[in-house]
Specification:
Layout: E1 11-17, E2 20-26, H1 36-43, E3 53-59, H2 64-72, E4 78-84, H3 94-106, E5 117-122, E6 125-132, E7 135-142, H4 148-154, E8 158-161, E9 169-175, E10 179-184, H5 188-193, E11 205-207, E12 215-227, E13 230-241, E14 245-247, H6 251-265, E15 272-277, E16 280-288, E17 294-301, E18 303-309
Parallel strand pairs: 2-3, 4-5, 10-12, 13-15
Antiparallel strand pairs: 1-2, 1-18, 3-4, 5-6, 6-7, 7-17, 8-9, 8-11, 9-10, 12-13, 13-14, 15-16, 16-17
Bound molecules: the ligand N[C@@H](CCC[C@H](N)C(=O)O)C(=O)O.
The ligand N[C@@H](CCC[C@H](N)C(=O)O)C(=O)O binds next to helix 3 and helix 6.
EC number: 5.1.1.7
Function: Catalyzes the stereoinversion of LL-2,6-diaminopimelate (L,L-DAP) to meso-diaminopimelate (meso-DAP), a precursor of L-lysine and an essential component of the bacterial peptidoglycan.
InterPro entries: DAP_epimerase_AS (IPR018510), DAP_epimerase_DapF (IPR001653)
Length: about 300
């Protein structure tokens, strides 16, 4: 690992949300310029610290994307500057933002009593995060189907070839707001046989190719039940993340998975979902928005694991 002088000597913190893991880089005054190769070096699991991505902790006023967020949400003091392990930027990270808020609390940068919330800037806009005991609920904002009503009616708008599975599958694109493609599989056995890798001959192919890339979720709907008097659906999921590879969880991906299965289920499909991932379990809730659309909420845990000083 070669860490540039920009990060050498910095104390970083590692953490995860359902085992989707991150390195937090404190940079409150926006003094750091982190090159893509620095991100790759830190995230390298063999020669670096090892993580699915980094979360730079910076004040919104210190970063151009944060200044835009502040115009809409002046209370968003802190900005989650998320980078995938390959150094690329993404609009939003649903697991990362819970870990980010947990870090803000642990570092004494916010006071967040149980039941209260904090607004955090992201490249996808401002997001309100509410503490619920040891868990956090994120208002992930509005969601949409890039393929529109036609994709909803047909149930898919892209054809995906996934090595390890027998033949092409229909995928439904979901924006939350980062891009996802959700593919349904009939059973958990086929979920296990799929190859999920970003590069080389075993990488999935898409027709049409998503212009901004995509995260890919393979889902197996596991049925519906009732919880506290409300219908709740359950989904098992594996995910191949854009800019990372297969991860043990993806928060925006769990939202996309629940939203796709709910779309396929049609009217009367639950608004509450349990999504089971290799790294644990999260909950996804859908509510009507004031403008006629819908908002999606993600609830799950966050952990901090270590402080690391880079040499
Ligand atoms: N793991 C994240 C999503 C991170 C961004 C994604 N790889 C992308 O490029 O869109 C999550 O928990 O949502």
């Amino acid at each position: 690992m070669t860490i540039s002088h920009a990060l050498a000597g910095t104390t970083l913190t590692t953490g995860h949300g359902t085992e989707n893991d991150f390195v937090l880089v404190p940079d409150p005054d926006g003094a750091l310029t982190i090159a893509p190769e620095d991100v790759r070096a830190v995230c390298d699991r063999h020669a670096g610290v090892g993580a699915d991505g980094i979360l730079r902790v910076v004040r919104s006023r210190e970063i151009t994307a944060g200044a835009e967020v502040l115009r809409e949400s002046p209370e968003a003091e802190w900005f989650m500057d998320y980078r995938n392990a390959d150094g690329s930027y993404a609009e939003m990270c649903g697991n990362g933002i819970r870990v980010f808020v947990h870090y803000l609390r642990a570092a004494g940068l916010v006071d967040l009593p149980d039941g209260e919330s904090v607004v955090v800037g992201t490249r996808g806009g401002a997001r309100r995060v509410t503490r619920e005991g040891e868990q956090y609920t994120v208002d992930m904002g509005t969601w949409w189907l890039p393929g529109g009503a036609r994709a909803a009616a047909e149930g898919h708008d892209v054809v995906v070839e996934i090595p390890g599975l027998d033949g092409p599958r229909g995928g439904l694109r979901v924006a939350v707001p980062n891009p996802h493609t959700v593919v349904a599989l009939p059973d958990e056995a086929s979920l296990g046989t799929a190859h999920l890798t970003l590069d080389g001959p075993l990488a999935p192919t898409y027709e049409p190719v998503p212009p901004e890339g995509t995260n890919l979720e393979l889902v197996v709907p596991l049925g519906e039940g009732v919880q506290d008097g409300a219908p709740v659906g359950t989904v098992r999921m594996r995910v191949l993340e854009r800019g990372v590879g297969e991860t043990r969880s993806c928060g925006t991906g769990t939202c996309a998975a629940a939203l796709a299965v709910r779309t396929w289920g049609g009217t009367g499909s639950p608004n509450l979902w349990r999504v089971l991932v290799p790294g644990g379990e999260v909950r996804v809730r859908v509510e009507p928005d004031t403008d006629g659309g819908e908002r999606v909420f993600l609830t799950g845990p966050a952990e901090l694991t270590a402080d690391v000083v880079l040499r």
